[in-house]
């Protein structure tokens, strides 16, 4: 386990910019308006030889505990409890505020070592704020510019005495991951859906803690938040690693007008790219909407294994009719992958959550499956015998053999002649047969056609 370093400060002092600087990529959303970050975000940071986990937190605000800012502050308080070092960030250009002094008083009462960072200190505009920072009683402030990368050497010197004893031992080079190792690794599971479908509540129920902000307000989640977790499989009586990824709600494109929401939706799409299995969460009180089908199609186009969970099942009306109606609509709207796993769950009561996780591991296995070439071509010969390809215009389409070129998602290459004349309906026949008879379940499958070059094609 790497040591944890938490970033704390009032809104808009540059915490997420510093987070992005330390992880070396733009993982956290950044904007000029305050209050962009709402949930804790974890990242792997590397600074001049020091390795640690950096934790970005919401801006500290002095509001009642039941309000959204108050719940955000509780997330920060929970993060400090597990931190090894706290980075307290102030805005050197704005100078000290009463809220800065309140945060400093809270941090002084904590046993966690605190490094005071005066951000935006480049140029003369930050000099007065840097001098004011001495009055907080947290030692000498470190002048930095998170945006321009200035002061990182001084930050390293401040972190070194606290983090050097906690550095993990060096390991030899890891062997190249094979497919079995990928299946033994953590399941990368993204939770997507429209706003207020209960995605964060679902994850909190799995974790058995209020790890993510929830509430009646739609669109609370903005960043895609990845959380490493261990699920105990009750049927196999074993622990299995999972990386849960919470994402922002995806509304219709025409309804997304704010810049921050556009960024959040882009972040959610990016999270899908890194997932293995994606769970699309529906709201049982609203049923299946066109936007849900658009999200599902996007997941399948990205080649990810898809599952659909009808959440809030504990308050569903006419449950049997609702379930069957959604199943029929999915079969019609997602014709490219019939039989996508559909499950009824409740993030509030915990109904169906173990079954959902077990199914996610199962579909990942199908998504990662490789069929031996001999077995694949035995199936292929049987498929051709049962239903030979057509001969449009009297011209025979000859299908020679098929091979699996890749996994995750499964990709196949079909070799033959006159493949440009092969109807789409026959391609679907082959794809459905691969899925049904070779154990690929309802995962997206790619089938590419390849014909030998005609040596006379360019001759006149």
From TrEMBL:
SUPFAM superfamilies (alphabetical) = P-loop containing nucleoside triphosphate hydrolases (SSF52540)
**Record: residues binding GTP 2:** 193-200, 246-250, 311-314
Can you give the residue ranges of the EngA-type G domain? Answer: 3-167, 187-368
* Single GO molecular function: hydrolase activity
What is this protein's function per UniProt? GTPase that plays an essential role in the late steps of ribosome biogenesis.
HAMAP family in alphabetical order: GTPase_Der (MF_00195)
Query: What is the name attached to this protein's record?
Result: GTPase Der
């Amino acid at each position: 386990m790497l040591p944890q370093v938490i970033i704390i400060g009032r809104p808009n002092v540059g915490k997420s910019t510093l987070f992005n600087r330390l992880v070396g990529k733009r993982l956290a959303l950044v904007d000029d308006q305050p209050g962009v970050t709402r949930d804790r975000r974890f990242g792997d940071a590397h600074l001049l030889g020091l390795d640690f986990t950096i934790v970005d937190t919401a801006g500290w605000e002095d509001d009642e505990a039941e309000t959204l800012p108050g719940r955000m502050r509780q997330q920060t308080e929970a993060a400090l409890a597990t931190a090894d070092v706290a980075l307290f960030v102030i805005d050197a250009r704005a100078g000290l505020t009463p809220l800065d002094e309140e945060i400093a008083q809270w941090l002084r009462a904590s046993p966690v070592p605190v490094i005071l960072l005066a951000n935006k200190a480049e140029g003369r505009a930050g000099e007065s704020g840097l001098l004011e920072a001495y009055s907080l009683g947290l030692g000498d402030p470190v002048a930095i510019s998170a945006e321009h990368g200035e002061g990182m050497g001084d930050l390293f010197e401040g972190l070194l005495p606290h983090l050097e004893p906690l550095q993990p031992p060096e390991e030899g080079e890891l062997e190249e991951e094979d497919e079995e190792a990928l299946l033994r690794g953590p399941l990368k599971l993204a939770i997507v859906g429209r706003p207020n479908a209960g995605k964060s509540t679902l994850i909190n129920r799995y974790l058995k803690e209020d790890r993510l902000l929830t509430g009646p307000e739609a669109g609370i989640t903005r960043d895609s938040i990845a959380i490493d977790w261990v699920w105990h499989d009750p049927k196999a009586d074993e622990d299995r690693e999972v990386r849960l990824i919470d994402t922002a709600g995806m509304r219709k494109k025409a309804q997304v007008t704010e810049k921050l929401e556009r960024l959040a939706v882009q972040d959610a799409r990016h999270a899908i790219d890194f997932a293995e299995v994606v769970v699309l969460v529906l709201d049982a009180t609203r049923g299946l909407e066109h936007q849900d089908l658009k999200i599902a199609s996007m997941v399948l186009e990205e080649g990810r294994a898809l599952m659909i969970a009808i959440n809030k099942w504990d308050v569903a009306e006419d449950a049997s009719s609702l379930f069957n109606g959604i199943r029929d609509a999915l079969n019609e709207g997602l014709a490219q992958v019939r039989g996508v796993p559909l499950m009824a769950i409740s993030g509030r009561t915990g109904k169906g959550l173990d079954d959902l996780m077990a199914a996610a591991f199962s579909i990942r296995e199908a998504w990662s499956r490789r069929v031996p070439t001999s077995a694949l071509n035995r199936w292929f010969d049987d498929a051709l015998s049962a239903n030979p390809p057509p001969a449009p215009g009297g011209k025979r389409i000859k299908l020679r053999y098929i091979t699996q070129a890749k996994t995750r998602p499964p990709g196949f290459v079909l070799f033959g002649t006159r493949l440009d004349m092969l109807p789409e309906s026959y391609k679907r026949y082959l794809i459905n047969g691969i899925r049904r008879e070779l154990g690929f379940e309802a995962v997206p499958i790619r089938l590419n056609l390849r014909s030998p070059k005609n040596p006379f094609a360019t001759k006149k």
